[in-house]
């Protein structure tokens, strides 16, 4: 059985522990594989938020490409994937996707998702949100394959640790791909 590839992009916004958790979840699922694209900003933020190096994160992925490899597989619609997750997704990257400004492999891969009508999940990170951020998110959310999923804390599952909160948020980001990580606790109602 061929594995479903998920392109996982990371930008310089805060939230790199979510990237790490998403890659771990994908690695555990036998029907999925990951393709990692990290911006230079993501590599810098990683140093501030974790004790990991970019090379450590790359080891969690099944395949990696450098951000300036604009002609690599993910730049083409013939590179078959289940879609793309950008976690975290900076407002700069969101604006680039919204404007079709594909000046690196991550933005070009996102552009491919839009033109090929594949799933694109954006874990947007900023607070507070400006009218421009909201406009970009709103307009992209009108496309049926785009999911705007800000990583939100939830409390209905009564998390005991920050790690459990990170796992819940990461698992929620993967749900649009049909990957239901064991750590995901969807709302069950009252």
UniProtKB/TrEMBL annotation:
Keywords: Flavoprotein, FMN, Prenyltransferase, Transferase
Domain Flavoprotein: 4-168
Gene3D superfamilies: Flavin prenyltransferase-like
GO MF: prenyltransferase activity
InterPro entries recorded: Flavin_trans-like (IPR036551), Flavoprotein (IPR003382), UbiX-like (IPR004507)
UniProt keyword Phosphoprotein present: no
Protein name: 3-octaprenyl-4-hydroxybenzoate carboxy-lyase
Organism whose genome encodes this protein: Selenomonas sputigena (strain ATCC 35185 / DSM 20758 / CCUG 44933 / VPI D19B-28)
Organism placement in taxonomy: Bacteria, Bacillati, Bacillota, Negativicutes, Selenomonadales
């Amino acid at each position: 059985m061929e594995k479903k590839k998920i392109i996982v992009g990371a930008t310089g916004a805060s939230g790199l522990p979510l990237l790490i958790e998403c890659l771990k979840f994908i690695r555990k699922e036998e029907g999925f594989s990951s393709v990692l694209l990290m911006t230079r900003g993501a590599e810098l933020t990683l140093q501030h938020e974790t004790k990991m190096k970019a090379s450590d994160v790359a080891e969690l992925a099944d395949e990696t490409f450098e951000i300036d490899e604009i002609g690599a597989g993910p730049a083409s619609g013939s590179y078959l994937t289940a879609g793309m997750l950008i976690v975290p997704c900076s407002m700069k990257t969101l604006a680039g996707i919204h404007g079709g400004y594909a000046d690196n492999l991550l933005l070009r891969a996102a552009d491919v998702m839009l033109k090929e009508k594949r799933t694109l999940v954006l874990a947007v990170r900023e607070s507070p949100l400006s009218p421009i951020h909201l406009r970009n998110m709103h307009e992209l959310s009108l496309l049926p394959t785009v999911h705007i999923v800000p990583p939100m804390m939830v409390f209905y599952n009564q998390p005991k640790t920050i790690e459990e909160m990170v796992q819940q948020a990461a698992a929620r980001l993967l749900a649009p791909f049909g990957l239901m990580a064991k750590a995901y606790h969807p709302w069950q109602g009252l």
